[in-house]
Model the fold of this input.
Amino acid sequence: MDKDEAHEYISSLLNQSLRVYTTDGRMFRGTFKCTDPDRNIVLGNTHEYRQPSEEERSAAAANASGSSTILDMTSRYLGLIVVPGHHIVKMEAEQFLSQIKTQSA
Amino acid sequence: MADFGVGVPDEIARLSLGQGSAPQDTLPPSIRSEGIAVVDITAKFSDAVKTLEPGAIVKDGFFTLFDSVAALEIMDPKMDSGCSTTEAEVEHLYDVSKSLLPEEVLGIIDQLLCHEMSWHLGYPLSQTLFTSFYVEALSTPDPRSIQEATFIRDGGHDPNEQPMLQVLRAYCLGMLKSCGYVNERIKSEHYYEEEDFVTNTYNRTLLASLPTDAIRDVIIEAIAALKSQRGSISDNLVDALLLRLELRHIFLDAVECPKHMKEPDMAKKPWREGLAILPALKKSHSLASPVDEAFSAKLQRKLASTMPPRPIVQLDFDVAFGHLKSLFEDGLELIDVLHYTDSQCLLTFVSTFQAKKPQPIVYVRTLLQTFLFDAMEVLGSMSIRQLLDDDFAILTMPAHQYLDRLNDEVEAVQDPRYAMAQQMELFRTRAAQPFLDILRTTCQNRCRVRRTLCHLLRDWESLQVDAEEIDQILQVKVKEQPTMHWSSMGSGGVESYSLPLSSWTYLYKLRQMEQIIQLGFELEIYQADELAGMYWYLNYISKSRLHHTERIKSFVIKRVEETHGQPGNPDPLIGTQLQRSLMYTRLSLLDAAVTWELSDSLSCLYTVLNRLKLIKAPPRPYSTDELRYEIRMRPFAPVGLPVLPTFEEFTAGTLQPDTEIDELFEYAERAVEGAKRGFEALSKMTAEESFSVGSHQRWAAATKNGLKSCIATKIAISAVAKAVERSKDLDNLKIKVEIPTPEKAYHESWIVPKIVPLA
Done:
């Protein structure tokens, strides 16, 4: 990827909803505002999502009738955050399915 | 009211979240949605950022540096309350459904009481009440009905299964509800976040949606359930718990007292009842056994906040109880403000109430503001016009034609009464805000009182310009005859007009200037070596007030003479109004005189102490006397009259270089003797004479303290005078000067030095 292309790509993500996963297993979902060469990321209007604990998982599994259960992640509102680059394990962008379809069509 | 630098607190307020109830848009969106695909961009993004130059950033055009400062850094243990190094899950630290012993419930309740008082003292909920697992269980998710407000949700649990938990639940519900009231009350009035109180509820509603009566019922049920336990639990414990539930019940009534604004006795009832049970409550605290596990700072990470997690505030029970007690005492005393006598008594009430040491806590102060100003009505029943007219009548316009309500009825434009009604209405609209701001300002914390008064002074300065203009318009309209006015200096007669409105304004302005200087002493703004100068300036201002009051008095007397000269049966109301004004001028004259004389005496005394080098100036490498003078006088610089003394005049007044030490002693002694006589006369005044109906006790105590300050000054003067007389060497007097802190002085605004002999 050359410089201009990279810059364009990052700029195209600005103000998109991103999901950033951190080393401690939490996920942050917010609007992408800013980044730098160290991949530090600033997200606005962020919510934090946390995986259910072991106990909650086993409790839910015990109650469930089928082989799999769906548990909501616990979440809270944080607002503007900065995630340091070295704590990021995964990043995801949200896209509307409808838009992807029209793009490929 | 005038709030300068409005923008800044606003910006700061935005840094913390959750002001008010939960905004809709912050509800967490579901992360599973049909129409949305999630694409992993980790690798592509990482490659892309690698091409950026060091130091380069890619950012949204609207994203600013200020925003970035406010951002919360994830994974920083000092900022990120969700980041936990240990994997301990908060929810499982403590089981809120486990059964508790009565003494444990008592312990938790008393711990909650401590937290509640810490919150009243200015700590955020996150470090106090919201660290309790029980509070957390009751408030999240926000219960929609009283049945839902239980420690364990939807488990088919009967909340009343265990009587002890039922008691705790009732207590917590009552507590949270009253906290909700307190929070709303404080938010609706003027207060200072960061200085006084944190109203942030971190998106919790404090049970706003539950009706108070439902909570009262829960408390009453719990009381009944508790009483039925008498056989199985020791009586002491049952009584102790009952007291606490009763307190919650009373507290709910107390926070609702503003609705009884028109019936002061009803409003007083809960405060009185609360005071009655407090001693027994304190005594039974020894039975409690605290449960520390029921509180955890880790609960903070469940709150909507960008605040880094902070430790739990630990307030000692005795300290907390002391504050609770003074809350009830002050609350009870406060209701007396509703008994309105006249505007000056009201001012005395508010200022002496706020000058109490320690100052009433912020909730009581905001409650006072509510009583004073709620719904544009003073004390729930008076219009601002009534209050202002009352005040004009006392100070400068007793039974004055300008204030005649019938003027409003006149429709003939050429009639002078039409002009009176018009011009007076104009003046009232201009004066209302500055006048009410005096009351509102007094309700702030002491530092803010001084600061805001400095700003307010400018408003009064411009009001005076308006007043002078209106005075002149009216004196032409009514063809007022000038009087020959003899000044107290006896320098011959001057033709002068009564100028009632500008006189009124000027008197308030002078009083505020004095107050600003006096609060400077109380707040320890001045260094020891500056005291001579500041007392000199106070003396200068109070002298102006004395002369001004004499001028007002001469016109009041003129009105009295005019009325007596009139034939026929005079309206008895006119007589009382004139009498009241005379009484007020007498009080004002005496008050100005004691301020003048005592400040004169102290100024002389400090001049001597400075000259004898008993008070040494601290090293000030970057300051000069002139610069410091400029700083000290900055609040007064915009005031046109009285003229600000030049630095040379100030220095001459402070150093008095041409006066020998003996003479200074003589002046100081004569002045303090005069002040003492003045204070003695003041302390003999009745509540009516001193315009302190409803607050006479506090007013009299302050006057007595003034008298004590005079005596202490006399003692200090004679101690220094004797030491000077005894010793031949003025550099070695064998005495030492101690400047007491304002709390140690007899009166906060009279800092009298203590002379201690050196062994």
The longest strand of chain B covers residues 36-40. Chain B touches chain A through 54 residues (CB under 8 Å). Chain B has three domains: 1-23+36-315, 383-525, 555-759. Residues 1-23+36-315 of chain B form one domain.
